[in-house]
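Ticket #4471: structure output looks truncated?

Reporter: J.K.
Steps to reproduce: submitted the chain below (99 residues) through the standard prediction queue, then opened the result file.
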Amino acid sequence: MNKDKEKQEISVIGRLLSIEALLIVMGLVCLVSGIVTGESMQLFWGGMIIGGSVILYFVKKKDWKKHWEEQERIQKVYMEMRRLEEEKKEREKKNDERG
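Returned output as attached by the reporter:
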């Protein structure tokens, strides 16, 4: 029972100290520092860091395996359509040569 609790605590600490959390904290520090000192570059970098963290969150959240399977399926359909079009052109060409 204690080992499960320790794993949960490590998991919570791991989430709190994750790269994404540290990036958001760094962005907030830059924003606050920019507001306090009035420097626009710190405001800019703070906004960029927070924006990047949000984008990173959504990119990591996406199911990439499903995405690539869908892309492969679309590519197969496209290749099949191309093959059928080429066969149709070849048949038309042969029919034109005969007639």
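Triage note (M.O.): checked the attachment and the full token line is present. Residues 86 and 92 are 10 Å apart (CA to CA).
Status: closed, working as intended.
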